[in-house]
Design goal:
Keywords: ATP-binding, Helicase, Hydrolase, Nucleotide-binding. The chain has 24 helices and 31 strands. The protein is an alpha/beta fold and 783 residues long.
Length: 783
C-alpha cells in the first residue's frame, strides 16, 4: 500500500523501526494519544497483508477510518473501511478495516479471522472485557501478526504475554501546567456539585484563550454542566457515546468560535480533539464493578493512569493547562481494574465458547475471579447454552449471534408463537439501547391519561408501542436518536430470525406473551415484600421499584425485565432498581409452577381431617387449596389434635408433662449425654406403631395405649415435686427454667397481678441453687 499522507506526525520518526520489528515478531507500541499511532500503524502494517484494527469505541472507529481513507485519497469503504454495530462500510478488497470488539468477536467465531493477516489491538490499556478476550484468543491461536498499542501499561509484562517487542513513541508537547483546585492536597475527586465547581474554572480557561475540554463522569453531569454554561460566549458541545452526528462533528473539528467540549472517557483516548489548550478534569468516571455477584454501576475516582491520559490532551498546539478538581496527592489507584475483574462474565463466557474455547482455559493477562466464573457458568447452564463440559450447545449457538445480552436472546428463542417472538425482539431492542428511549410526560394529568391508555401501567406495553410508533405522543416523550438506535437493533434481530420488520409487526396478546416469558425464564418473576411495598423479591435477589417505572400500587407480583445495580455505602451493600416491569397475577405464577408447596395447617371438618396447602414463592403465599389429609400429613394432624386436647382428652396434656420432665431429668443427670425428646415426633411414631392409617382408627385406641417410657413411675412424683416446671403463687404464675451449668434456677413471670416478685420462702428449697426472677428483660436475684 502506498500513501499520500503529507501531514507529519510524531510517530513517523519510528516508521522504519516499526516495519523492521513487524517483519520479525509481534509489536507493542507505547504511545500517547496524538502521536498518530492509530492512523499510521495500520497503513505501515498493510505492507504485510490485510489489516484488522480493533478499536474499542464506535466513535473512534468511524472517525479513524474516515481520516485514514482521506489521507490515502480514498473513499471510506474502499481501501479503508469500518464495521460497527448496524453499520458496515468495507469490502473484501479493503486493505484496512477498523472494527469494534463485539463485531470482531463474531467474526472470530465464524472463521477465526482468516481473512486478515495482521490484527492491531488499539488502546489495549483500557482493558475492556471484549478486547481482553480477543487478546487471549489471538495469543492462544497464534496465527496472526499482532500489533498492540498501549499508553500506560507495563511494557515488559505485555512483551512476555504477546511474545512481542516493544517500542515507544512520544507525542510532541509544548508542556502542560497542572493546577489542583483543592484546599487539601489529599482531597479525592468527588461527584458532588460538579457543575458548580466546573463553571468558574472554565470561565478562567476561556479568558486564557483556546478551546477547553472538560472530563465528566457521564451524560447526566454533561447535561447539568451544559445548562450551567449556556450563558458563556462560547460553543458548549457534548461528547459521549450517544450524541448526534452534528455534535460529534462540532467536537472533532475546530471552529472560528471558542469551544467548551464536555466529554466522558470517550475523549480520553483514540479521538484527537483539535484546538484544546486547557483540560478541566473532574477526576470522576462511571465504572462498573462486581458487588455481591452483580455488576453494579457507580461513580469512581479515576486512576493515576487516566489522570495522565486526560492531562495529555492539552499542550499539543501551545503551552497547555490541566485544571484538576482534586488534591495533588489524592490517593488514586495506579490503574483502572480490567473489566473482566469487575463485571459479569456471562456474555464473555458464551463468546469464548462460541469461538471454540472454554473461558477458564484461555491465557489472560490477569486472573479471572472464581466467583464470577461460577456465576456465569451456572447462568449459561440453566439457559441450556453450555453443556457440562463448558462447550457451547446448539441453543447457545443460536443465542450468540443476536447482538443483545444472552438472557434476552434466550427469551427470544424460547417464545412459543411468532407474535410473541416479535414482541420480545422489540422489547429487547428498547431495553438494550444504552440511551433511554421513552419517558412518560410529567404531571398528574399526563399520569391519568397514561393510565387510561395503558390500563395496567405495564412498561412492556409502552415499550413495544413506542418502538412500533403506536404510543400517544401527548403522553409519552420519545428520544428520537435513541428510538432510531432501538429500531436498528430490532430490524437487525428480525432480519437474523427471518421475521417481518417492526413497521409491519404482528399484534400480540399481553397475557399470552407474559405467560410465555414465565415458562422460559421463571426467575424473572418477583413478588412484593409484605412490609416493604417498594421492594420485590424472587427468592434469590431483591429489587426496588425505580422512579422510571409507573408500576401501580395494587399488583403484588411482576415480571422484571430490566434492572440496574448501584453500589451503596457499605462494602457489600448494593441496591438493585427495577426499570421495566409488567404486572402479573399470583394465579399466573401458580400456573407456571413457581414456588414450593407446604401444609400450613389442617382443618377438621365433619370428622374429616383436611390439609390446608399453601404455595409459597419468595416468602409470599401465592396460592392455597385444601385436600384430605393422608399419610404423614394425617398422622401429624392427629398427633397435633391429641396434644391440643381435641382428641383423646387428657392424653396430650399427660404426655406433654411426662416428656418435659424426662427432658429435665436427663439434663440434670448428664446434660452432655441427654437427647431431648420432641413430644409431637414421639406421638407421631407412636400412632404409626399402633397402625393408625385413618382418623376412624382412633376409635379403637384409648389414651392408656400411649405409654411414654421416661422417669420410672416410683420416682416421678418426688422428682416433679423437687423440680417443678410451673408454680402458682398468690396472684403470680411462674415458669421454671433450670440451668445446671450455672447451678441457677430462673423463674419467669408467666402471669398474675402481683407487682413485686416472689419471696424466697414461697419457692421450693432448691438447696445449692441460685434463684433469679425474670420479668420481661429485667432479672433480679431472689434472696
Amino acid at each position: 500500500m502506498t500513501d499520500g499522507q503529507n501531514l507529519t506526525l510524531p510517530i513517523d520518526s519510528i516508521q522504519q523501526d516499526v516495519e523492521q520489528i513487524l517483519f520479525e515478531s509481534n509489536l507493542i507500541v507505547q504511545a500517547d494519544t496524538g502521536t498518530g499511532k492509530s492512523t499510521r500503524l495500520p497503513v505501515w502494517a498493510a505492507k504485510m497483508g490485510r489489516v484488522l484494527v480493533i478499536e474499542p469505541r464506535r466513535v473512534a472507529c468511524t472517525t479513524l477510518a474516515g481520516f485514514v481513507a482521506e489521507t490515502l485519497e480514498s473513499e471510506v469503504g474502499e481501501r479503508v473501511g469500518y464495521a460497527i454495530k448496524f453499520d458496515y462500510r468495507f469490502s473484501d478488497d479493503s486493505e484496512v478495516v477498523f472494527a469494534t470488539p463485539g463485531v470482531v468477536l463474531r467474526w472470530f467465531s465464524e472463521d477465526k479471522l482468516k481473512g486478515f493477516d495482521v490484527v492491531m489491538i488499539d488502546e489495549f490499556h483500557e482493558r475492556r472485557a471484549e478486547t481482553d478476550l480477543l487478546a487471549a484468543l489471538l495469543v492462544k491461536q497464534d496465527h496472526h501478526r499482532l500489533i498492540v498499542t498501549s499508553a500506560t501499561l507495563d511494557n515488559q509484562r505485555l512483551e512476555a504475554y504477546f511474545n512481542a517487542k516493544a517500542i515507544i513513541a512520544n507525542a510532541k508537547s509544548y508542556g502542560v501546567t497542572t493546577v489542583h483546585h483543592s484546599r487539601d492536597s489529599q482531597h479525592m475527586p468527588s461527584g458532588r456539585s460538579i457543575e458548580d465547581r466546573v463553571k468558574p474554572v472554565v470561565e478562567q480557561a476561556l479568558a486564557r484563550g483556546g478551546d477547553v475540554l472538560v472530563f465528566l463522569p457521564g451524560k447526566k453531569e454533561i447535561s447539568q454542566c451544559q445548562s450551567m454554561l449556556k450563558s458563556l460566549e462560547a460553543e458548549v458541545i457534548p461528547l459521549h457515546a450517544s450524541v448526534s452526528d452534528f455534535d460529534r462533528y462540532r467536537a472533532l473539528h475546530q471552529s472560528d468560535n471558542q469551544r467548551v467540549v464536555l466529554a466522558t472517557n470517550v475523549a480520553e483516548t483514540s479521538l484527537t480533539i483539535p484546538g484544546i489548550v486547557t483540560v478541566v478534569d473532574s477526576g470522576m468516571e462511571r465504572r462498573t464493578h462486581q458487588r455481591n455477584g452483580r455488576t453494579a454501576l457507580a461513580l469512581h475516582a479515576i486512576s493515576k493512569a487516566s489522570a495522565k491520559q486526560r492531562a495529555g490532551r492539552a499542550g499539543r498546539i501551545s503551552a497547555g493547562y490541566c485544571e484538576r478538581l482534586f488534591g495533588e496527592h489524592a490517593p488514586l489507584e495506579a490503574f483502572t481494574p480490567p473489566e473482566l475483574e469487575r463485571e459479569d462474565l456471562t456474555e464473555t463466557m458464551l463468546a469464548a465458547a462460541c469461538c471454540g474455547y472454554v473461558l477458564e482455559q484461555l491465557p489472560f493477562l490477569s486472573n479471572l475471579p472464581e466467583k464470577s466464573l461460577n456465576i456465569a457458568k451456572a447462568r449459561l447452564s440453566e439457559m441450556g447454552a453450555l453443556d457440562e463440559q463448558g462447550a457451547v450447545t446448539e441453543h447457545g449457538k443460536r443465542l450468540y449471534p443476536l447482538p443483545i445480552d444472552s438472557i434476552f436472546a434466550h427469551l427470544i428463542s424460547g417464545m412459543d408463537t411468532k407474535s410473541n417472538t416479535e414482541a420480545m425482539v422489540d422489547l429487547a431492542a428498547v431495553l438494550q439501547t444504552p440511551m433511554t428511549v421513552w419517558k412518560r410526560k410529567g404531571g398528574e394529568l399526563a399520569l391519568d391519561n397514561y393510565q387510561r391508555w395503558n390500563v395496567l401501567s405495564c412498561d412492556v406495553v409502552t415499550s413495544v408501542a413506542v418502538l412500533r410508533g403506536e404510543q400517544p405522543t401527548e403522553i409519552i416523550d420519545v428520544d428520537e436518536l435513541a428510538l432510531e438506535e432501538a429500531r436498528k437493533l430490532s430490524s437487525s434481530i428480525r432480519e437474523a430470525l427471518e421475521l417481518p420488520d417492526w413497521d409491519v409487526a404482528s399484534r400480540f396478546s399481553r397475557e399470552a406473551f407474559l405467560k410465555s416469558v414465565l415458562s422460559v425464564a421463571p426467575e424473572l418473576a418477583y413478588v412484593r415484600r409484605e412490609k416493604r411495598q417498594q421492594a420485590f423479591g424472587n427468592g434469590f435477589n431483591e429489587v426496588t421499584l425505580s422512579r422510571d417505572s409507573d408500576f401501580p400500587a395494587k399488583p403484588q407480583s411482576a415480571i422484571v425485565f430490566d434492572q440496574f445495580h448501584l453500589a451503596g455505602r457499605g462494602v457489600k451493600q448494593t441496591t438493585s432498581y427495577a426499570t421495566c416491569m409488567a404486572p402479573v397475577s399470583f394465579a399466573w405464577l401458580v400456573d407456571a409452577g413457581l414456588g414450593e408447596e407446604s401444609i400450613s395447617e389442617f382443618d377438621d371438618s365433619d370428622g374429616v381431617v383436611v390439609d390446608v396447602i399453601e404455595r409459597i414463592y419468595a416468602g409470599r403465599v401465592i396460592g392455597e387449596y385444601r385436600q384430605a389429609a393422608k399419610g404423614e400429613s394425617l398422622i401429624r394432624a392427629l398427633a397435633t389434635q391429641i396434644i391440643n386436647g381435641e382428641l383423646l382428652k387428657g392424653t396430650g396434656e399427660r404426655l406433654v408433662r411426662e416428656v418435659k420432665y424426662w427432658n429435665l431429668y436427663q439434663s440434670l443427670e448428664d446434660a452432655a449425654k441427654s437427647t431431648e425428646v420432641d413430644v409431637l415426633a414421639w406421638l407421631e411414631q407412636a400412632l404409626q406403631d399402633l397402625g393408625v392409617e385413618a382418623a376412624e382408627d382412633l376409635e379403637l385406641i384409648e389414651g392408656d395405649d400411649f405409654v411414654f417410657d421416661g422417669i420410672p413411675s416410683w420416682e416421678f412424683d418426688d422428682f416433679a415435686e423437687k423440680y417443678p416446671l410451673e408454680l402458682n403463687l398468690a396472684e403470680l404464675k411462674l415458669d421454671v427454667e433450670y440451668q445446671k451449668g450455672k447451678r441457677t434456677v430462673v423463674v419467669h413471670h408467666a402471669g398474675g397481678n402481683r407487682k413485686d416478685g416472689p419471696k424466697r420462702w414461697e419457692l421450693p428449697s432448691w438447696s445449692g441453687w441460685k434463684v433469679q426472677y425474670k420479668k420481661a428483660s429485667r432479672v433480679i436475684d431472689v434472696r
